[in-house]
Amino acid sequence: MIIAFVVLAVLFAVFVLENRVPVTVGFLSWRYDTNVGLAVIVPLILGLVVGFGMSWGKQQLLRTQLRNAEARTKAAEAKLREIDRQREIASDQQDQEQER
């Protein structure tokens, strides 16, 4: 993972250095003079950070849901074991009564 990050960082740096043509970036009434490389890379990196944040948030939500489902499953299994135990006791009692 770290190797992939380093490779991408180097590729981004090379892209920025190779694309130094000046350009004016405009958004609504805001204007900014920069080079083409930065005008492309900065939004890309911001998009990656926002996407990572959103997927991390969703992952945390899914982990919480999984923990809750596991807890409900354990409770249901315990209840099922208790029912089976009670059924076995009742069956044993019936067998003893029939033997008399």
TrEMBL record:
Keywords: Cell membrane, Coiled coil, Membrane, Transmembrane, Transmembrane helix. The chain crosses the membrane at residues 36-57. Residues 19-80 form the Lipopolysaccharide assembly protein A domain. GO terms for cellular component: plasma membrane. The keyword Coiled coil applies. The keyword Coiled coil applies. It comes from the Bacteria. Residues 59-100 form a coiled coil. This is LapA family protein. The lineage of its organism: Bacteria, Bacillati, Candidatus Sysuimicrobiota, Candidatus Sysuimicrobiia, Candidatus Sysuimicrobiales.
